[in-house]
């Protein structure tokens, strides 16, 4: 046992030396642009609460009212006694919201993505995955007996070359993020859907960072590209980002959903989320429909930030979404930039390998409809000062 612990300590020390060590922060206030973190009042630009709904009164009241009626824990898995009428109503609401025949709730986005491949893909099937897909999709592929092929990021030609090598005859799945979580760019879903139609592929989209934000009505990446359930037969969306709650769902036709209920281990063997979370999510979906000003404001803040970053010459990775990556390159530099921002009472998380590829460490800046123009300008000024200081050293 002692040798084992020493080996672990050596690994931890290596991570510290390489600026890869991670430490959770203690937050003492609700999700908001300004939060109490580790005893400091900080302006934050690292939350996925894109529409500012996580602390919305309507969501909190729905949660409280439902907890009073249904209790806190669900008590068991969906297939035992955990699936309440509140859960059922949310699944029906999500199906209508996304335009799919059915939706199935999961306790987290990670579990939903494990189900996407684990519940549907079989031995000798082929899965083609974008190289920058979320870690949960990567892990989902590792847990299947299918053959996994990873094509160059958002590169249709690379995908086609790999498809040509395999040829026809087996089930072929293409899986991609809609909005890539660390780069903020969009998958070429229009072209991918045409390819899927032409070559009999099953297209799966993880739209964790698109649902609620993109599209005229906030339906996500599919609406942004004028696609529907016939073009993208499998859609995963999370409830803990733009919708401000927790959990996830898969939307698909009846046969696929019924298959997942029978075969997806991450659905069958997991306790259902509290009914109160389902009720809060229902309230969030209503606000997405009724308060389009949140998306409109977020778009304006994105334009303001990207315009300012461009004028200042900041080394940004191009993105039109609320995810704005500032490229540092090496991990040490990303950590140093984050520390200097913290000295100015601004919190932005340094993203380092293995979350992103070697040489692409960055600050992952995220914007929310709750931010003000002045707060965005404050961040830009702070970044400009830091990079000016560094270039003068």
Protein model, in words:
By secondary structure, the chain is an alpha/beta fold. The chain folds into two domains: 23-52 and 292-391, Aspartate Aminotransferase, domain 1 (Alpha-Beta Complex); 57-290, Aspartate Aminotransferase, domain 2, CATH 3.40.640.10. The chain is 45% helix and 16% strand. The protein has 15 helices and 13 strands. It has helices at residues 2-17, 57-70, 78-82, 85-98, 109-118, 135-142, 156-166, 189-199, 221-224, 254-263, 265-268, 275-290, 293-312, 331-343, 373-391, and strands spanning 34-37, 40-44, 102-106, 126-130, 147-151, 172-177, 202-206, 234-238, 248-252, 323-329, 346-347, 349-351, 361-366. The strands form three sheets. It has a seven-stranded mixed sheet, with helices on both faces. Strands 1-2-11 form a three-stranded mixed sheet. Strand 7, helix 9 (221-224) and strand 8 (234-238) form a beta-alpha-beta unit. Helix 5 (109-118) runs parallel beside helix 6 (135-142) and helix 13 packs parallel to helix 15.
CATH superfamily (homologous) name of the largest domain: Type I PLP-dependent aspartate aminotransferase-like (Major domain)
Structural class: alpha/beta
Overall geometric form: globular
Number of domains: 2
Major sheet description:
7 strands, mixed
What's the number of helices? 15
Distance between the termini: 47 Å
Helix content: 40-55%
What is the mean pLDDT? 95
Question: What's the CATH topology label of the largest domain?
Answer: Aspartate Aminotransferase, domain 2
Q: Please write the CATH class name of the largest domain.
A: Alpha Beta
Question: Total number of β-strand segments?
Answer: 13
Gyration radius (Cα, Å) is 21 Å
What share of the residues does DSSP label as strand, in percent?
15-25%
Assigned CATH architecture of the largest domain: 3-Layer(aba) Sandwich
